[in-house]
From TrEMBL, chain A:
Protein name listed in UniProt: Acetyl-CoA C-acetyltransferase
Gene Ontology cellular-component annotations: cytosol
Family under the similarity heading: Belongs to the thiolase-like superfamily. Thiolase family.
Keyword Transferase attached: yes
Cross-referenced PANTHER family: ACETYL-COA ACYLTRANSFERASE FADA2 (3-KETOACYL-COA THIOLASE) (BETA-KETOTHIOLASE)-RELATED
Listed Pfam families: Thiolase_C, Thiolase_N
Active site: 89 (acyl-thioester intermediate), 377 (proton acceptor), 408 (proton acceptor)
EC code(s) of this entry: 2.3.1.9
UniProt-listed CDD domains: thiolase
Organism expressing this protein natively: Demequina capsici
Automatic annotation (TrEMBL), chain B:
Segment forming the signal sequence: none
Gene3D superfamilies associated with the record: NAD(P)-binding Rossmann-like Domain
GO molecular-function term, one example from the UniProt record: 3-oxoacyl-[acyl-carrier-protein] reductase (NADPH) activity
EC number: 1.1.1.100
Top-rank EC class of the record's enzyme: oxidoreductase
Coiled-coil region list: none
Name recorded for this polypeptide: 3-oxoacyl-ACP reductase
Assigned protein family: Belongs to the short-chain dehydrogenases/reductases (SDR) family.
Species assigned in the record: Demequina capsici
Keywords noted in UniProt: Oxidoreductase
Length: 422, 448
């Protein structure tokens, strides 16, 4: 037990806005493509991985056993086991911890964490009355009975049910929830647009210097993230109309993440195994923590990571200042601003059970190669995008450099993890 | 496919084409297959080199039929697979008659994709000896043009001190289908102190780096390397990453997305290899681009980009990859192979920049070879002629058909033909071949 778990590397597809260049791809296609690129990068073709854990948030019934099926479509040995996990936007980080924990316990020597989502190919279900009629018709023993059942179909039954984007318990969408938080934490339009601008600029610069050469494999002819706007400006962002929070809202399509398509993977290994295989070790997986808030009771839906971060830092006897880099998933620019404010807010931190304020997260430590606003956010893929990115950034800073990933998720949940450069 | 091309390949079109002298080209024997018929060895003068070499590669051989002037000339009962002529003792004009005497019966007897292989010594000695050495070259080139049904002729010039062990890998390559599109060529084999035994997987466990591996000839090289046991590091530009990953996974190698014109390209390749605890056995500089335009329309950018990718980047990477102090660089006994082109050797309208870069590759390997000899690293180039790839498929049909027909095998080569020649050069047993440019062009009409 207690094996050192390292991030060997990762691979993802370029991300794109839904309905864009990846619209023809299913979850299965995306996950398979991301796996294939990873297998090629690390020469795993024909080998058996300890386990692959993946998942998608928007899943069709045909996505039954999605990850295992993607493994079978990949170049990994068909003897590679797999499972599906799902924790909304935290899925890709949760799969990372699932695999890391198994490695830490010595149950497997290496494994792959993954996540995929396509909002282009979101499942559309039929209305409850229509579903009941169709099931009855298909179970009918005679043609007459079948026709009788089908005759009960009414035009109103035929309207397709789009996937729900509201929180089931509040009826509010994530954006609407964030608009409440935005208001409550007094997050201004300018600071949100500044975060969106930095995200695009940082991501564009990272692409230009080849940072993603060993993190992204093109897919369906798409070679770079398609949402990225290298030339965007504060003026351009400032002209956008609010989409959440009513007429006087501050959240726009420019400072909120777009519905996206993409998949990401992480190769994790026992450090001794990685050494023996001649595979690189970028960073050690130190620890992770999940938290949840009572959003039906009025808590900020997307601020659960704050409590998780506080508990994790305390457990690791670390302070915010020990983190050289912080990756905060940009669900909305306002989420990032509110999270930073919450880290500084002594009363809030005590209210969520921490000993006090966590401290400041400076600009130069935050999302330095861009994040979800510019990259996109295929829900389950985001965690698996962040882990190799941060691992590579920390590795470049030298042994011992530590960084944190913070991901908020639907349902009022949040997961944070700490990595340390090897 | 254009309407014209469809018509040409229709049953009627084929008949018309055949009447016009454009017969269906022969289907070439490929891969590690030996000829079906007997290998005939003709030895002229006192030499055991031919028989020693065939013994070394484990091939039995028959005695030749000799034309001694009777009418009609004698023939072979059954088709023969190959006619190997050991002419290493030939150095007088009068002895050339003996080549004629064994070649004449052999010309009609050779099976489809049969082989004529001439073993000779490098030209040395008096005027007559040097003239005779060159005469063999003329014989080889003409025999190659007269042979039919995919049969080829090639000449191997041996250094004076080279023996059977040095030429064994070349003999094996030439007899087998691997040399299908190598025709009418001549190259030299030097002596080496330690040529290893031949095996069917000579690259087993050896790391070979291939640039431009995502498509076409590069992908064929990766596959052929894997067949011969190599651990392939497949390199291509990040934009080609999807195809690159597919190739890498197919050959169970690794993919390295990298622009070879990056200043640190060599260092990144070495790091990739060193991280896995390896050294490089071979580097195949396959990546290349074309930016064709008549010279009158060629601007500085078109000129520079082709020279940068095809020549300068290769030279820069070599400097790092051949530095023994760099972890993950080429090990002693390693191999460097560049890709030249018949366009570079012969010149080609609209390709000044490309011809410059490809002729430059030939010059580079000739310059490098002696400097690396002490580390037993060989440096060679292959020069493909017309090869059927996505790139050549874009040439207009009539022009493409002319290119295909303008060689002794009346067809375009396959990417695997280039790959096979490269694998032959990468074989540890090919230690005696360095500083050579080997054309894989079916004896194209143009070129040196």
């Amino acid at each position: 037990m207690n094996h050192d778990v390292v991030v060997v590397g990762g691979n993802r597809t370029p991300f794109a806005k839904s309905g864009g260049p990846l619209r023809e791809a299913t979850n299965h296609d995306l996950l398979t493509a991301a796996l294939e690129g990873l297998v090629a990068r690390f020469g795993l073709a024909g080998t058996r991985a300890g386990e692959v854990a993946g998942g998608a948030v928007l899943k069709h019934p045909r996505d039954f056993n999605l990850t295992r099926e993607a493994v079978l479509s990949s170049s990994l040995a068909p003897q590679t086991p797999a499972c599906d996990l799902q924790q909304a936007c935290a899925t890709g980080l949760e799969t990372t911890m699932y695999i890391a924990n198994k490695i830490a316990l010595g149950q497997i020597s290496h494994g792959i964490a993954a996540g995929a989502d396509t909002a282009s190919d979101a499942p559309i279900s039929v209305s409850d009355p229509l579903r009941r009629i169709l099931l009855e018709a298909s179970a009918a023993r005679s043609t007459k009975a079948r026709l009788a059942a089908l005759a009960r179909i009414r035009p109103s039954h035929l309207a397709p049910q789009a996937p729900r984007v509201e929180e089931p318990r509040t009826g509010l969408s994530m954006g609407e929830h964030q608009a409440i938080t935005t208001e409550r934490w007094q997050v201004g339009r300018e600071e949100q647009d500044a975060i969106a601008l930095a995200s695009h600029r940082n991501l564009a610069a990272a692409w230009d210097r080849g940072f993603f050469d060993d993190l992204v494999t093109p897919f369906l002819g798409l070679t770079r993230d398609a949402i990225l706007r290298p030339d965007t400006t504060l003026e351009a962002l400032g002209r956008l109309r609010p989409v959440f929070g009513g007429e006087n809202g501050t959240m726009t399509a420019g400072n909120s993440t777009a519905l996206s398509d993409g998949a990401a993977t992480v190769l994790l290994a026992d450090s001794a195994w990685a050494d023996a295989q001649g595979l690189p070790s970028l960073a050690r997986v130190v620890d992770a923590e999940v938290a949840a808030v009572d959003h039906p009771g009025g808590a900020d839906l997307l601020l659960a990571p704050v409590a998780a971060a506080g508990r994790l830092l305390a457990r690791q006897r670390m302070a915010a200042g020990d983190l050289e880099l912080v990756e905060i998933h940009e669900a909305f620019a306002a989420t990032v601003v509110a999270t930073r404010k919450a880290w500084l807010d002594d009363a809030y931190c005590r209210a969520v059970g921490l000993d006090g304020a966590l401290g400041a997260i400076d600009d130069e430590r935050l999302n330095i190669t861009g994040s979800s606003l510019a990259v996109g956010h295929p829900f389950a893929a985001t965690g698996a995008r962040l882990v190799p990115t941060l691992a590579k950034l920390l590795h470049a800073r030298g042994t011992g450099a530590r960084g944190m990933i913070s991901v908020c998720a639907a349902g009022g949940q949040g997961i944070v993890a700490i990595l340390e450069a090897v | 496919m254009s309407a014209l091309e469809k018509a040409f390949h229709s049953p009627v079109g084929r008949k018309v084409a055949a009447k016009a002298g454009l017969a269906e080209p022969a289907r070439l024997r490929r891969g590690r297959a030996y000829p079906a018929g007997a290998i005939v060895l003709a030895t002229i003068g006192a030499s055991t080199l031919g028989s020693d070499t065939l013994a070394r590669i484990g091939r039995p051989f028959d005695a030749p039929v000799v034309d001694s002037g009777e009418d009609p000339a004698p023939g072979y009962g059954n088709p023969i697979g190959a006619l190997v002529i050991d002419a290493t003792a030939v150095n007088r004009i009068a002895q050339l008659e003996q080549l004629r005497a064994v070649l004449r019966p052999g010309m009609r007897a050779l099976e489809a994709s049969g082989r004529v292989i001439l073993l000779a010594r490098e030209g040395a000695g008096d005027w007559e000896q040097q003239a005779v050495a060159r005469a063999l070259d003329g014989i080889d080139r003409t025999v190659a043009k007269e042979l039919r049904k995919g049969a080829t002729s090639n000449l191997v010039r041996m250094a004076l001190d080279a023996g059977a062990a040095d030429v064994a890998s070349t003999m094996e390559f030439l007899l087998q289908g691997r040399s299908a599109f190598v025709d009418g060529q001549a190259w030299s084999v030097k002596a080496s102190p330690d040529a290893p035994e031949l095996t069917s997987r000579p690259l087993h466990g050896r790391v070979v780096v291939v640039t431009g591996a995502a498509r076409g000839i590069g992908a064929a090289i990766a596959r052929t390397l894997a067949r011969d046991g190599a651990r392939v590091v497949a390199v291509d530009v990040p934009a080609a990453g999807e195809q690159l990953a597919a190739v890498a996974n197919e050959v169970a190698g690794t993919a390295l997305q990298l622009d070879i014109t990056a200043r640190d390209a060599g260092a990144r390749i070495a790091e990739h290899v060193a991280a896995r605890g390896d050294r490089i056995h071979g580097v195949v500089h396959n990546a290349g681009i074309t930016r064709d335009k008549m010279l009158a329309n060629t601007d500085a950018d078109r000129w520079a980009s082709v020279l940068e990718v095809n020549l300068a980047a290769q030279m820069r990477m070599n400097e790092v990859l051949l530095d023994p102090a760099v972890p993950g660089s080429v090990a002693d006994g390693g191999r460097v192979v560049g890709i030249a082109s018949t366009s570079g050797l012969a010149g080609n309208k609209g390709q000044t920049n490309y011809a410059a870069s490809k002729a430059g590759v030939a010059g580079l390997i000739i310059a490098m070879a002696p400097d690396l000899a002490s580390r037993r690293i060989t440096v060679n180039a292959v020069a493909p002629g017309f090869i059927e790839t996505d790139m050549t498929a874009r040439i207009p049909f009539v022009q493409r058909e002319v290119f295909r027909r303008s060689n002794s095998l009346s067809q375009g080569g396959s990417p695997v033909d280039v790959a096979e020649t490269i694998c032959y050069l990468l074989d540890p047993a090919s230690q005696g071949i360095t500083g050579q440019v080997i054309r894989v062009c079916g004896q194209n009409l143009v070129g040196a």
